[in-house]
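Tutorial handout. Part one gives the primary structure; part two gives the three-dimensional structure as tokens.
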Amino acid sequence: MMEWSEMLPEVLDIIAQKYITYYEDYPSFAGVCKSWRLAAARTYHNSNGPPSRLPSLILAEISDDHESRECFLLSNKCIRKIRLPEAYGKIFMSSCGWLLTVGRDFASQLINPLSREIINLPKANTFREFIHPLNWDIAIQKVVLLLESKLVLVISGTYNKLGFCHIGDTKWTSIEQSKGVHDITFYNGHIYCFDCYSTIQACNVNGNDPTVLVRVARIPKRVYDQHVSSAYIVGLNDGERKQLLVIIKEGVFNDGKCPETYKTKSFQVLAYDLKSRKWSKVKDFGRKTLFVGFSSSFWMEDTTGVIKGNCIYYTDDEEGEYEYSEKGGGRDMGIYNLSDGTMEPHFTGESRSRFTPPI
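Part two.
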């Protein structure tokens, strides 16, 4: 009988391509013997390897490492290192597994951190609103990527306006009606945003008039009567109902500390039913988990039990006030349990950066 180590390289390559579908498969496959380790390396030699089974936390850049970034894997609590020199010294945010980066020269790109594919976008200073060169780091603050329609939707500039481009465009288009936008999402065939006036609006950037916003709803005082300084919006199908969820982050400044640091205290989740046009409060996600932060918000349901259900995993974001801190973003991260309001860390190490907090 042939030993595993004596199998032909061509056969091992086929086996590796079939069975190394997730990063967590790689160590066990490569650990069989030297020939299997070489086959595993050949399978992903032009990339950073396969995705993890569960979301990963890209950690803040290390000042003396211009070539790579560390990712904290939620699946097994270990650190994975990937080559990402294109992102060094830039701000970036994520959507659908891609990164949108902006450099000091306003050059913006979409980068797939695993396949290493790069898509050039218009310069971030082609928005109608003037952006001072010193403010390059707020030129783009959030992104929603719709690859099928080659659409990139963002929040941009000092006034947090909506903007968009189609891949291949030479400049960004601003939606001038928008202002003070907290978050954006694509849901049920429409683009929705939630702003500082507690209002949900919708637009159709592929329609006849792509720069027009239509008011959908406003949170009534009887549902939530406090000022909203940080919030997210995401869609949710609940049986036959289609809902937009507004997730309000409530926080406090640490008293007596200099510089002041912002810490999340709790979350309030409000649902707007698109059919009945009624608001309600949400206290239970069931087995679903929501991820929010300096990226587009997304759901997942983990049957393995590694990711905690009925929770919100959060990181620093554009409203996190981390500019007040010399050490920057990375202080305000954790897991919020929706059922009892308790909080716990998902990453216990140190990872802080002024421009690229963990996402």
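Part three, for discussion. Residues 318-327 have pLDDT under 50 and may be disordered. Residues 9-19 form the longest helix (11 residues).
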